[in-house]
Amino acid sequence: MWSLDQQALKTTKLVIITVASTFISLFFVLSYLYHSSGSDALGLLTFDFTFYNTYTLKEPVSDNNNNETHEELPAADDYEYDVELVIATLKQQNTSWYSTYFPGWKSNIYIVDEAAAPLTVPQNKGNEAMVYLTYIIDRYDSLPNNALFLHAERFQWHNDNPDYDGYPLLRDFQFTYLQEEGYVNLRCVWAIGCPVAIHPFEDEVVSEQHQDQTTGEIYKQAFEELLPHHPVPGEVGISCCAQFAVTKDMIRQRPKEDYIRFRDWLLNTPFQDGLSGRFFEYSWHSKGPFTSS
After folding, report:
1. For residue 68, what are the contacts with CB-CB under 8 A and spacing of at least 6?
2. Could you give the CA distance from residue 86 to residue 284 in angstroms, rounded to a whole number?
3. What pairs with residue 244 in β-bridges?
4. Under a CB-based contact definition with an 8 Å cutoff, are residues 277 and 129 in contact?
């Protein structure tokens, strides 16, 4: 049998050999990365290490050198990648990141609380739904093949990303899948809204005091007013929070007049923004706003 000293000596030798081998291997890996792709390789390693440990991410390199951001984006004249962004924002919010990291995609920035803005809405009412409907109405005859409907800020809690970052969400978006489906929600996480959030018949409460009502309580009434020829669904479930992509063909399954009617309802409804806007949030995906049957 080995004595305790002999066992300790053997263990020490094994540790030394293992550590030395690890450092030698690491040296060759880093040397290879450095010589094959330049000193930026070390920066990428640093980015990977810090990605999940801070909300203040290292920004992508400036436009002129940002190969990762722009070289992966196909030409704008490719049918699948004829893309426009529709962005609902307040004037104090920062939307510059869209044009910085996605310059090949036209950004339609609707500033809802600035009447003199190049793009705005008839009235700041109904949250982002007013912006989305206004864009569809204004551009119905000249829609891009793919439209992404979005909120303003890059970092938002409802972005489907560990760091709530909207940049990788758009960078990795699969337009081929959108062309197949016609509509894609940008949030896959079930919370909040899935599998079922609203039972229109069970939840309904008719009241003149709308400020105290929930979306479930007014959903049936709103649905019947907006889509009188469609049966009210028994259950409604969709991942929040009204960021999605739609194809031109899907939008045009409804005539322009329907979207005008939807916006008129939004302008005139007595429901507060939190109710009227959220009704649309729970309806964009259904066989109603975007399909005629």
Report:
1. 60, 61
2. 15
3. 149, 185
4. yes
